[in-house]
Each structure stands twice: as structure tokens, then as C-alpha cells.
């Protein structure tokens, strides 16, 4: 099969599209004929080699953490998923950007989602669902999401609003209308966040989610006043220092399904900003590292709607 692999750690230019062995479904998994994948921060962090001491890979390795595609093999012990189903979800740490991939956590893709949107939803859904779960009952509460316009922030906002929370979210100037369209009370990043939030929520903030690659975790703790009501999906060291909670993605189908169920109801539309072909995988990584929105990579010809 064709796949995007890297033989050495380094920048985007180490990625090459070449022949690679096909994976096959193992017990508790499904194999998909991949339609598209998304580029997540973990993809370029792993590829760079910055965390090879923590997450070592056998090189050459296929890049990619999540994907959407059509099931063509069903592993032993799998119930409710059949050959021909369109599903999205997670593979391993780095192995989905090929013509075939094995998913260990997945859900049926909502019919209303485009290929690009489904490709963007896997890792974002499980990360957001784990964070919202950690925050507990949000009904009637006000949640501040720093980085609400990103893939995880968009998913978390949908989940929080479905749980009955009022959501205030930060984003860049260009994303203010996007946030408002999601039913989020929008604010901007940067200095003065505390005062801006106070104007938007004079009764205070009950909880906060740090979903942006920023150094704002201390300010979020200050705004909320209780570090145990602040969750970060970014800053492990800061969480330990401040007493906030750090949440990581977990390969659990139940978490993927939370995003899918909201998608089916029209309450969650995954963010997908630009799509490129597999042959442009290096460019896709380069754009993602420059924070040029949520980048999707088409592996097979599908409904390219972006």
C-alpha cells in the first residue's frame, strides 16, 4: 500500500510517500480503507523526535493518529461494526496515513459530516470528551475554554453546551465570528483576559479548559479560583505545579462515540480548514505546525468539499 512514512526523525521534509506493508485487523480492532486523515500536534511532535525517549518508534514509521474510512476487516470480538461501514477514530500513536489503517477506537461517522470533518474528529473528540468528563457536571455552569476555535476546543464547546453549560471561548480576531456561530461567547487571546472575562461573566467562571498552545494556564487558575476546576490538555508541567488537572487522549470507543452522537444531532461540526492530497503530506505538516487551521490529508479520492 502507499503510505506517508519517515525513516529518520526531523522536519516535515523527512516524510515520504512510498510502499509500505499492509496492516491487518487484530482482536478488538477494525481495518479501514482510509479516505482521509487529519494532522494533529502529536503527529509533528512524534515525527520531530522531540519525545522519542518517551514514545520510541520502530522506524520507518507511518505518520498519523486518526482517520476516517470504510471498514474492510473486522477483528475477533468486535460487535456492531461491519464491513462496508464508514467509521472514524484512532489508530496507534503513529500509523494511520496510509491506504489501510487499523483502528482501536472508533465510531460510525455521522452521515451529515463530510469526509474532511470526519477525518478531523477522532483525536479531537476523545481529547475533548476526556476533558469534559474530568470537569464533572457542567449543567448551569459557565466554562471558559482557552483555544475554543481549535479542533479540541470546538469539540469541547459542543459537549459542554450539550451538558447545559454556558461557554466563553477565546480565539484569534479572525475566529470571533466562527466562535459566535457555535453559540460561544467569544473573547480574544492575550493580555487582559481576566478583565475581558469578568465583563462577559460578571458572576464568575466555574471551570476552565486550557486547549490552546499558550502559557495561559496560571491565568486560567486565577480566573476560576480553584485549580481542581481547571483542566489542561497541553501543559503537563504547569498542571503539576499549579494543582490543575492534565488530561490526555485515550483510545476508547465510548469517547469517540460522544463526538459522533453530537454530530448526528447537528450539535457538533468538526473543524476542517484545508485539505491536501497524500503526496503533499510534508506541506500539510508544515502548515499545521504554523497553526494554519485544521489540515486534512486525502488518502483516496472522496468528496473533497474544502
From TrEMBL:
CDD domains: MDR_like_2 (cd05289)
Name of this protein: Enoyl reductase (ER) domain-containing protein
Family matches, as PANTHER family: QUINONE OXIDOREDUCTASE
Keywords from the UniProt entry: NADP
Classification lineage: Bacteria, Bacillati, Actinomycetota, Actinomycetes, Mycobacteriales
Start and end residues of each Enoyl reductase (ER) domain: 10-297
UniProt xrefs under SMART domains: PKS_ER
Molecular function per GO: oxidoreductase activity
Entries under SUPFAM superfamilies matching the protein: GroES-like, NAD(P)-binding Rossmann-fold domains
InterPro entries: ADH-like_N, ER, GroES-like_sf, NAD(P)-bd_dom_sf, Zinc-ADH_QOR/CCCR
